[in-house]
Design a protein that fits this description.
Elements lengths: L3 E10 L2 E11 L4 E5 L6 H8 L7 E6 L2 E2 L5 H7 L1 E4 L11 H8 L8 H6 L2 H20 L15 H13 L5 E5 L7 H18 L2 E5 L3 H7 L2 E6 L2 E6 L1 H6 L1 H7 L9
Parallel strand pairs: 3-8, 3-9, 6-7, 7-8
Antiparallel strand pairs: 1-2, 1-4, 4-5, 9-10
Bound molecules: adenosine-5'-triphosphate and magnesium ion.
Length: about 260
């Protein structure tokens, strides 16, 4: 059974159709690319899948359950976590603090526990701290642990956002343009990082990315949307040679860099 199954997802805002009849069945362990020109509807697909928008039409199934209309937090608890297009780090907090914010849903202590700093609370806090350290070590970010997030190199900030999402223990990640604004070296690093998520953590990934180089090198399967419509689906070679894709990108020159 597919891990994520989006069926006929449609999103209308007033009279405007942002996404029409989007379909995708994603198997465990896959990295699937979702590409298309600016305003094509990519982020809207994510918003519908992870509960930020209630689709006008269609259904989303995750891990065998119908999650259409469920609250974003409950969807995260089921193992589907999204990383936003515009970074949402707490810039003034350091790396470990950002990680602990991400882990909050694993705190079992009550508010009263936290106010009184009961043993349950302290135990949970210690556990969360240890797990975050462990994750930072595995993701090769441990050297930055006490640095202020907003002052880190941009490539590291993007990785930290993904690391924080990883602390929700996802089965699947939705990554929205993780390589945007990165230089060649940083985006190579991101390619390695995303591949590592799949290979070492068994994470299934749906990836929105403008850099064709990044998408083509990590996604064996790519879905292309334009003006909300799915115009192509296939492997990198098929997508490269697809006439409709070529036309959709005509005049768009920001997709060849890095
Ligand atoms: N909340 C909303 N209200 C009205 N229109 C919206 C809303 N969210 C998205 N749209 C519209 O839907 C269309 C698709 O937007 P979306 O953000 O999904 O595009 P995108 O493919 O992610 O683009 P980009 O590559 O620039 O991030 C756009 O025309 C956008 O203005
Ligand atoms: Mg977007």
């Amino acid at each position: 059974m597919s891990l994520l199954d989006a069926k006929d997802l449609t999103m209308r805002f007033g009279g405007l159709v942002s996404v029409a009849n989007f379909n995708a069945a994603i198997e465990p362990g896959e990295i699937v690319g979702l590409i298309g020109p600016n305003g094509a509807g990519k982020s809207t697909v994510f918003n519908m899948v992870c509960g930020f928008y209630k689709p006008t039409q269609g259904r989303v199934f995750f891990d065998g359950k119908d999650i259409t209309g469920m609250k974003p937090n409950n969807i995260v608890e089921m193992g589907l976590t999204r990383v936003f297009q515009n970074g949402r780090l707490f810039k003034k907090m350091n790396v470990i603090e950002n990680m602990l914010v991400g882990r909050q849903r694993h705190f079992k202590a009550s508010l009263l526990d936290s106010i009184l700093r009961t043993p349950t609370y302290q135990q949970n806090e210690k556990l969360a701290y240890e797990k975050s350290i462990n994750l930072l070590e595995k993701l090769d970010l441990i050297n930055y642990i006490h640095e202020e997030a907003g002052k880190l190199p941009f490539g590291i900030q993007r990785k930290l956002e993904v690391a924080r999402a990883m602390s929700t223990k996802p089965k699947m990640l939705l990554l929205d343009e993780p390589a945007t604004g990165l230089n060649v070296e940083e985006s190579n690093d991101m390619i390695h990082f995303i591949t590592q998520l799949r290979d070492e953590f068994n994470i299934t990934i749906l990836l929105i990315e403008h850099s064709m180089r990044v998408v083509m090198s990590i996604c064996p399967r790519i879905i292309v949307i334009d003006h909300g419509e799915t115009i192509a689906e296939g492997n990198p070679d098929e997508i490269r040679e697809n006439q409709k894709v070529f036309e959709a990108y005509l005049g768009v020159d920001d997709n060849v860099e890095n």
